[in-house]
């Protein structure tokens, strides 16, 4: 290993082990630069070895490999032969490498026997009746494709219709539940103790701060006294969640059996089924109107004149200056009761949430006193964002007490029907970020609260992050396709350029059911060009403020291209990958951004680091803790002035890239995008599903402009000077 700025010198000794053999060292050269090295003859015997000195001056962090080739001539046999040896150099900080290296060698985790884990289903618990599909197809040594084919043949209806809709998605929910239950059981523990404080018993849980496992108030955890396999299991309900421990409350008999600080327990985490139950209940709801779930052109009808000619006094004047946003608001405001779902197709940075907020404000104007709106989103943060945007214009009383507007998470809306709110109470249901929700999640508000007059508005982008689905079987059966994505595949109703639909576009004169926003207010044109051409048909226009996007023009960080290796690693029993060299390279870039002069100096809050693996995010946080503790690591939800992506395993052989995650990661950047990866592995252009080909389009132009610099870097990829003892250097 060599320090980044210090360089490294060394000596290779060449000697003969055969005393009777006389050889001549004809030449020494590197495989990467054959033909460019100087040659010098010299005898090599057992008593007179030759020494070859080398010097390495590379400054870029990473791992560099080459092969050094020695060509000899046997004087007795009159023949030449060659010997090659690998030459490897690691550039980086040795202290950082030691701190971040694997804590222990990786061991492939084996499937643990359920009985050996003291599974509570074996003793002391009376089993209930599981859903019919939960154990119908066992996970076994069969292939994923075979599992998917078996489930499709045995359980799923051949066609998805309004009649088969509930049965189809209930089976997918059961499959997902099976995987979720298996995942939570991986965190089961033994040989643990409980600490009693007042009325609660506290359990320390490794990984709780990283939500591995995720434990919430109301969850259940089972406990059994260790070394007593026939004893009862006691159910503890979580009342308190701290950073590293949870507080539980048990039945009074738990203390009576003899709790003590030294008593050891087996611990079994239980899946919280509340969210799943709410989705099953929604699917069982009788509301299944074709115009909502399977709209056709006949459901839309002809376009009326009021949408295009209607004059609106926009609450947000910026909407009026944006033709597509204004069009979307007008179309929504003109919808008749009982229309097909309307979609606001919002590519990254185009202001879809702003558009939805404006549409809601227009609908809630005083002239529409009977309109009531439920605004939902698949996550609390997205629902909170809608509420925050509306809070400046609407009082809390108007938003909640009169029930003209409610902003909730999709699943949480089940409470409304649970307390008896009648169907049709809400005349409008808005679902923001609908592309990130599974269909059953969106069904919770739609199927339980809609009637024949309720209008549905979905906003999102099917090209970006989709629903989080843990089961690969469920994903293979299409559970990770959102309602929004399924509808947009119906091009006869929702056809727009760049939507990805192969179906014909709507007929002329047909009313609109979708508007695509095209003005991007986030990214520099250089960052926007690739996703625009590859995913959105070239429709996006760069409208971001130059004051932000041009921040790094003429920065010494640009252009930056280098070819070096970043091998990945794993540790202990964790299946997650990390890459120490990439961590150190990211740390270096963060330090350069923070320490830059003038306008190039970047605050922690303006830097985001994205990595696809949990282990890599952990290593990045450790490395950045001392230099940039406030830099956001891991999430791709927020936008930042500078985004650094650590690919970890950018290889077509080892990575099954989700195209949507790639798109989202790239489009988070406003002014600077840095991608750290291994180009020797094929990188992001290696997979046929990732159409990132630097030989085409914008990438080709950038490549030509930087070609001279890249060639120079390639020529100096191994800056090694060699020197036979007493002879000239070999360059």
Automatic annotation (TrEMBL):
Residue ranges of domain DNA2/NAM7 helicase-like C-terminal in the record: 511-679
EC number: 3.6.4.13
Major subcellular site: cytoplasm
Compartment(s): Cytoplasm
Reactions the enzyme catalyzes: ATP + H2O = ADP + phosphate + H(+)
Region ranges (Disordered): 99-119
GO cellular component, one term: cytoplasm
Protein name stated in the entry: RNA helicase
Organism: Coprinellus micaceus (Glistening ink-cap mushroom)
Taxonomic lineage of the native organism: Eukaryota, Fungi, Dikarya, Basidiomycota, Agaricomycotina
